[in-house]
Amino acid sequence: MGMEIINNYSNYAIQDMKNLQYPKQGLAAYVRELAKLAPSLDVKAGSTFSSSRGGRTLTLSHGILNKMRHDPQTEKDMKDMIKGVEFITKFMDGIYKASGKTLVFSNSFIDGEGKYRCFSRVVDSRSLAMSGKLRQARKQNAQKLIDKSREKTMKKRKGLQKKSVAKRSVTRSGVDIRL
After folding, report:
1. Which residues lie across from 123 on neighbouring strands?
2. So where are the chain's domains?
3. Fewer CB under 10 Å: which end of the chain, C or N?
4. CB 31 within 8 A of CB 65
5. Cβ-based neighbour number of residue 38 at 10 Å
6. Phi then psi for 60, rounded to 5 degrees?
């Protein structure tokens, strides 16, 4: 009869380390819980801004997540900040819509010290349409100016030609007389 010995110590050690690091629950579950505070944002865990170029994202650094899980006051403060990020994102979106602009994407980040940073890309659709109209109006105005300057040039040229013809006739008559 043979016996097989399996070492499960490493599996238990890894599980204990996870429990020490994240005693309440796993990181993914904790981030999903935090995402409920900001339903209009895509909440992620990461080390820097999201590289997403569409939608609205909030990335929480691993450092702040660890602080939140071990310090109830930090957790309360950061949950309030996440709710604030949700509010300010909706508020700014309303301002953009009222001013005729469109939010392409907004990426927010809370670093390990709890500092909030955000960058967005906004397109002004009215100015794009208006700039086309303005461009057309400028083109028409420029064409009018060109036409006016051509007319003036033609008038000057005709005037100079008349003077030139008159001078030639005077000179010819003068030359004829002298000869």
Report:
1. 102
2. 9-125
3. N
4. yes
5. 21
6. -105, 130
CA distance 91 to 37: 16
Question: Can you tell me which residue has the tokens 């080390």?
Answer: 47
* pTM, 2 dp: 0.54
**DSSP state string for the chain:** --------HHHHHHHHHHHHHSSSS-HHHHHHHHHTT-TTSEEEE-SS-----SEEEEEE-HHHHHHHHH-HHHHHHHHHHHHHHHHHHHHHHHHHHHTTEEEEEEEEEE-TT--EEEEEEEEEHHHHHHHHHHHHHHHHHHHHHHHHHHHHHHHHHHHHHHHHHHHHHHHHHHHHHH-
CA geometry: angle 75, 77, 116, nearest 5 deg: 105
Across-strand partners of 107? 57, 119
Per-residue model confidence as pLDDT tens digits over 7-65: 444 444 344 445 445 455 688 888 888 889 988 888 888 877 777 677 888 888 888 89
Instruction: Give the type of residue at 8.
Output: N
User: By CB neighbour count within 10 A (0-12 exposed, 13-18 middle, 19+ buried), where does 78 fall?
Assistant: buried
